[in-house]
Sequence to fold (276 residues):
Amino acid sequence: MNNNNTLIVGSIGLDTIETVSDRKESILGGSATYATIAAGKSASVHLVGIIGDDFPINGMKILEEATVDLSNLDQKEGKTFIWGGRYAEDWDNRETLFTELGVFNDFNPKPITSSSKEARILADKAQQKNLIVTVDHTYLFTGAVRRIKDVLTEGQLGQLYYYDSVRVNLGLFQHDVNVMWDLATHDFSIMNYLLGPTARAVSAAGSCHINELEDIAYITVFFDNNLLIIWWNKYHLLLLAHIGSYCEILYKQMRYYGLIFFDIYNHIHKTKRNHK
Fold:
């Protein structure tokens, strides 16, 4: 058994996917599913989630093989979360055909902590017991993000001037949660992993269009080395642009509840910018 213990909490679903050449139904999906499979290759995974009584046996076998503990995977009477989508030929665009939350609609795990003080205590206890506590860090297991980290570490971008993180394109509209709490945490985990230095100031602004929870938001982060971080959203397509003194790198990812397609354009433009 691997001593590197990891707890994963999130959605487990069944996807119906249409492409220009094929259509598949009841494909294993969900953010927790993909995080579990990826992390299970190098860690002992404890999975927390919910599925319906229609969840396939082969799907359960996949989860069993990737984890060491499924005691907190609840199986309830009803349908497993389902999403259906159609992808364009270029894979950059997709259309949501239907969404059925099923038992996932009642999935409400308790917050891991309720304050920064509690979070620090939990992190210290985890370190003492050789455990890993991650909050929305599933992106850090992706090959694209790790490749960007290598590019930055090797200095291929030169001095990093600007980091732009954008979420656009229509997805499932979350009407019951603030968009910064729902989405920005994903991208700030990537930012912390890639950049490391501590920010000296943060500015955030948002607006509400459906109810009293912000559904559009803009965040600016300032660093001592004049590095500027911009985060803004509309919905669910993630774009990360890293602008350096030598070149730039673009990470373009389209995802929907764990279904991930990404291209990392690290054929890094070798033409150096002329800053006269």
Observations:
- Confidence is low (pLDDT under 50) at residues 254-276.
- The CA atoms of residues 88 and 94 lie 6 Å apart.
